[in-house]
């Protein structure tokens, strides 16, 4: 009786496994295996060329120890934190919410137009938008320089992190805007009207009425965009980590270590450290979410 | 002195619906006023227009002789209780009640004082530290009322204040609301689709339909002399008899009977004779027919008799005088309780 209860489709175990096998195989080949492989080569001295490429040797935790003592790695950790905090936690979050909040009460046609433009920035392929921004920010003929009547400034070279942060806010705000738009629809209108009737200002309404309702959404949104931003590789297309490592966020550093310097084992170890960082961020958010419930 | 003066107000929704249509209304200071009508008649829109939540497309709203038509809701000196109470779920009862004061940056100690005082007068004193989710429906309603009162407004607006309560609680809340309004002497406008609620609570009632006022008067006037057949139909817990008839020889013939009432109309003029089941009595003469249905209403029974031409007439009889189904009965109206409506549905007079 119990077996029949759990087997709603009436397939039987063998056929059920046969149905999910292709999906499991794909997940195994493209997700599980590379992850385990990264784990493994992270503890070897595997290289792209040379004797260590043919016969990698297990070196234990050496790669991790040297990464944590590597000034370039620590520099990248700091830049990544700045990138995540500036462009995601503050930038996309706040701008996304402000857009959602302001677009609530405008004409539907205007709202749809703004949403379409914001979404466009999000769905265009990374190389395309990177090229567009390169054209906007570059020296001698960049649109931004021409607008400011200052064509000599190479924005990506002189202010690389600021440029990356502005770029990533522009690129990723759509997700936060969409999420907050639907979150705001869940705030009971009569509570907003009660706030209006007692004369609450916009800020008081957001703080006292709206925010308590959407706290869960804020945490989820911040978690997702933080992880995406921490792992984002698009900065490579704009600055390639330069000048002189000044915009070398972790994914860029890992890429350069692995494919430019050929240190596959060392780069894998750094990937693992980035993964651990992501996990820590996720755990903190999950704890905050649980405390709310 | 916070009366409400509504002059020529129209409220039009973006889809072109005129929910309130060129409406004039004066509500006196301290009055308990009901906006009554079926759903979609514009009563809630009118209330929201007074509050400023809907902009008036035309006309003006004045509160306490001050034109507030273009003012934000928060600047009008009105407080409103919504049908779903709109209590903030993350705040305690005390924080909810004191919220209007918090918005105005009143000192914390003063906020607590006002919350405790208002809650006390609405018998919520024990519940100050609870969250709305931990309150019963009646307690939530009183908490919402307390918040509205704590706002210190001159006008209190209530949107379907009793409709979310179960039947028994509703009667208690009705009595409570009437006493509270009497004590505070706060100009109060409430919206309801329940005619019994409007009759029981209000000092005056406006019966609305399609964005206009059909009749304005005290509960007694609206109940006894409905201005047209729409109001006649809408008011009363047992539906009013509206019988088609016509003038003949200076009297009225209806359902095969000649009613001995004088009318000054050309013979053959179509009429509608309206009479409440409560005002019909079993008698020797008048409308006659056979009892077809008897419904027990508790103290009284609603008896439906079918006249020879098929017209159905309802009347209430005391429970101990309940007739048997099939019995022949003649009924006539108490003097002055017969209402005559013209073909257009307007009241011509009573006999």
Task: Please give a structural write-up.
- Chain B: Keywords: ATP-binding, Cell membrane, Membrane, Nucleotide-binding, Translocase, Transport.
- Chain B: It comes from Lentzea tibetensis.
- Chain B: GO terms for molecular function: ABC-type transporter activity; ATP binding; ATP hydrolysis activity.
- The complex is a heterodimer of chains A (293) and B (351).
- With 293 residues, chain A is mostly helical.
- Chain A has 2 domains: 2-42; 62-292, MetI-like fold (Orthogonal Bundle), CATH 1.10.3720.
- Helix content of chain A is 77%, strand content 0%.
- Chain A contains 15 helices and no strands.
- The longest helix of chain A has 33 residues, at 71-103.
- The mean pLDDT of chain A is 88.
- Chain B has 351 residues and is α+β, with helices and mostly antiparallel strands.
- Chain B has 2 domains: 4-227, Rossmann fold, CATH 3.40.50; 241-350, OB fold (Dihydrolipoamide Acetyltransferase, E2P) (Beta Barrel), CATH 2.40.50.
- Chain B is built from 8 helices and 20 strands.
- The longest helix of chain B is centred in the middle third of the chain and has 18 residues, at 167-184.
- Chain B is elongated.
- The model of chain B has no long low-confidence stretch (mean pLDDT 89).
- At the A-B interface, helix 11 and helix 12 of A face strand 6 and helix 2 of B.
In short:
Chain B: Keywords: ATP-binding, Cell membrane, Membrane, Nucleotide-binding, Translocase, Transport. By secondary structure, chain A is mainly alpha-helical.
Give the helix/strand layout:
The complex is a heterodimer of chains A (293) and B (351).
Chain A: H1 2-6, H2 13-42, H3 51-54, H4 62-68, H5 71-103, H6 108-123, H7 126-137, H8 143-147, H9 155-158, H10 160-185, H11 189-197, H12 202-230, H13 234-239, H14 250-260, H15 264-292
Chain B: E1 4-12, E2 18-27, E3 32-36, H1 43-51, E4 58-63, E5 66-67, E6 78-81, H2 93-103, H3 108-121, H4 137-150, E7 155-159, H5 167-184, E8 187-192, H6 195-201, E9 204-209, E10 212-217, H7 219-224, H8 229-234, E11 241-248, E12 251-254, E13 257-259, E14 270-275, E15 280-296, E16 300-307, E17 312-318, E18 328-333, E19 339-341, E20 347-350
Parallel strand pairs in B: 3-8, 3-9, 6-7, 7-8
Antiparallel strand pairs in B: 1-2, 1-4, 4-5, 9-10, 11-12, 11-14, 12-13, 14-19, 15-16, 15-18, 16-17, 19-20
Helix pairs in contact in B: 2-3, 2-4, 3-4
GO molecular function (chain B): ABC-type transporter activity; ATP binding; ATP hydrolysis activity
Organism (chain B): Lentzea tibetensis
Domain ABC transporter (chain B): 4-235
């Amino acid at each position: 009786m119990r077996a029949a209860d759990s087997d709603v489709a009436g397939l039987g175990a063998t056929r059920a496994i046969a149905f999910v096998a292709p999906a499991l195989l794909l997940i195994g080949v493209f997700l599980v295996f590379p992850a385990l492989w990264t784990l493994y080569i992270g503890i070897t001295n595997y290289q792209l060329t040379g004797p260590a490429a043919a016969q990698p040797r297990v070196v234990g935790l050496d790669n991790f120890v040297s990464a944590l003592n590597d000034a370039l790695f620590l520099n990248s950790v700091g830049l990544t934190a700045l990138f995540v905090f500036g462009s995601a936690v503050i930038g996309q979050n706040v701008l996304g919410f402000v857009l959602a909040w302001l677009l609530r009460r405008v004409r539907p046609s205007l709202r749809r137009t703004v949403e379409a433009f914001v979404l466009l920035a999000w769905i265009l392929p990374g190389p395309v938008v990177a090229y567009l921004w390169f054209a906007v920010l570059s020296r001698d003929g960049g649109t931004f320089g021409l607008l400011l009547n200052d064509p000599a400034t190479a924005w990506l070279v002189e202010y690389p992190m600021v440029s990356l942060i502005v770029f990533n806010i522009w690129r990723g705000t759509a997700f936060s805007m969409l999420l907050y738009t639907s979150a705001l629809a869940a705030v009971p209108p009569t509570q907003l009207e009660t706030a209006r009737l007692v004369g609450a200002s916009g800020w008081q309404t957001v703080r006292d009425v709206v925010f308590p309702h959407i706290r869960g959404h804020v945490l989820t949104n911040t978690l997702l965009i933080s992880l995406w931003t921490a792992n984002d590789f698009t900065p490579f297309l704009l600055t390639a980590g330069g000048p002189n490592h000044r915009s070398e966020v972790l994914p860029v550093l890992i890429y350069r270590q692995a494919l430019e310097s050929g240190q596959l084992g060392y780069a894998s170890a750094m990937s693992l450290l980035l993964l651990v960082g992501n996990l820590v961020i996720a755990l903190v958010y999950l704890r905050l979410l649980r405390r709310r419930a | 002195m916070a009366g409400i003066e509504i002059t020529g107000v129209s409220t039009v929704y973006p889809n072109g619906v005129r929910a309130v249509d060129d409406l004039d209304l004066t509500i006196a200071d301290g009055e308990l006023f009901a906006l009554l009508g079926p759903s979609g008649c514009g009563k809630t829109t009118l209330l929201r227009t007074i509050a400023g939540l809907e902009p008036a497309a035309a006309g003006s709203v004045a509160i306490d002789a001050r034109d507030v038509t273009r003012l934000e809701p928060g600047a009008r000196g009105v407080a409103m209780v919504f049908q779903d109470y709109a209590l903030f779920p993350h705040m305690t009862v005390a924080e909810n009640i004191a919220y209007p004061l918090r918005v105005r940056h009143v000192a914390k100690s003063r906020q607590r004082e006002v919350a405790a005082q208002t809650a006390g007068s609405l018998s919520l004193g024990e519940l100050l530290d609870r969250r709305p989710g931990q309150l019963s429906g009646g307690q939530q309603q009183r908490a919402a009322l307390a918040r509205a009162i704590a706002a210190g407004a001159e006008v209190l607006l209530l949107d379907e204040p009793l409709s979310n309560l179960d039947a028994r609680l509703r009667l208690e809340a009705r009595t409570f609301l009437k006493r509270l309004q009497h004590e505070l002497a706060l100009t109060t406008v409430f919206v309801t689709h329940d005619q019994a609620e409007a009759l029981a609570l209000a000092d005056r009632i406006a019966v609305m339909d399609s964005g206009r006022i059909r009749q304005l008067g005290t509960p007694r006037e609206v109940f006894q002399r409905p201005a047209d057949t729409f109001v006649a139909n809408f008011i009363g817990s047992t539906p009013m008899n509206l019988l088609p008839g016509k003038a003949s020889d200076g009297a009225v013939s209806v359902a095969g009977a000649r009613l001995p009432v004088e009318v000054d109309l050309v013979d053959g003029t179509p009429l509608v004779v309206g009479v409440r089941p409560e005002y019909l009595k079993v008698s020797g003469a008048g409308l006659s027919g056979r009892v077809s249905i008897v419904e027990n209403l508790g103290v009284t029974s609603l008896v439906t008799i079918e006249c020879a031409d098929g017209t159905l007439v309802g009347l209430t009889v005391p429970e101990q005088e309940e007739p048997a189904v099939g019995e022949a009965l003649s009924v006539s109206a108490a003097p002055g309780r017969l209402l005559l409506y013209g073909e257009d549905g307007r009241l011509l007079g009573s006999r």
